[in-house]
């Protein structure tokens, strides 16, 4: 059951917000709130830009992914190509651009919206979108070797096992790939 709004009597009231730190990548704020039936207090919120990723599938039912090291968590894992959307850029354009820049492959089919979500809505405001396309052609080398790491076509059939083994990092690839698999099984 989809609900756009909930009852006002259980909605957290927001009285204002002040910025503690701000740059082009991250904004840390204190939000003056009062939860239902609770005391008023200031709650930290991290606000990040919109993130867009691309799950491009080839004729062999494989998705192009990148094996990367993420220093913040000191972990190697598979990811989808993606990045921060430019302010005035349509998300489908961002998905196609990031896919090509990070992999050297260009999607040949049109980008189609797959899923939108917030990965940590209790403390972090960072809208995420995953787009998908069918088909790709190699057009160049990745524009940034650090971004690309290792690029491989991974069979969609391998994704559930990879998820169970913790080989896919980040909510974007997890949510996007699992949504894609559900859609292909007629469950989405």
From TrEMBL:
CDD domains on file: NUDIX_ADPRase_Nudt5_UGPPase_Nudt14
Protein origin, superkingdom: Bacteria
Domain Nudix hydrolase: 47-176
Pfam families: NUDIX
Keywords: Hydrolase
GO MF annotation list: hydrolase activity
Co-factor(s): Mg(2+)
PROSITE patterns (alphabetical): NUDIX (PS51462), NUDIX_BOX (PS00893)
InterPro entries, per the entry: NUDIX_hydrolase-like_dom_sf, NUDIX_hydrolase_CS, NUDIX_hydrolase_dom
Protein name (database record): NUDIX hydrolase
């Amino acid at each position: 059951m989809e609900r756009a709004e909930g009852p006002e009597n259980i909605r957290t009231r927001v009285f204002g917000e002040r910025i503690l730190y701000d740059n082009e990548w991250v904004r840390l704020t204190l939000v003056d709130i009062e939860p239902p039936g609770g005391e008023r207090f200031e709650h930290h919120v991290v606000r990040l830009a919109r993130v867009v990723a691309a799950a491009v599938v080839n004729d062999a039912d494989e998705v192009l992914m990148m094996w990367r090291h993420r220093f913040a968590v000191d972990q190697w894992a598979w990811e989808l190509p993606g990045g921060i959307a430019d302010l005035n850029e349509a998300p489908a354009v961002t998905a196609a651009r990031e896919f090509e820049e990070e992999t050297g492959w260009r999607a040949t089919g049109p980008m189609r919206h797959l899923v939108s979500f917030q990965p940590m809505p209790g403390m972090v405001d960072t809208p995420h979108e995953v787009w998908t396309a069918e088909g790709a052609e190699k057009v160049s080398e990745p524009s940034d070797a650090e971004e690309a790491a290792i690029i491989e076509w991974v069979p969609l059939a391998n994704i559930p096992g990879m998820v169970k083994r913790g080989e896919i990092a980040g909510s974007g690839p997890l949510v996007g790939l699992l949504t894609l698999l559900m859609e292909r099984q007629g469950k989405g």
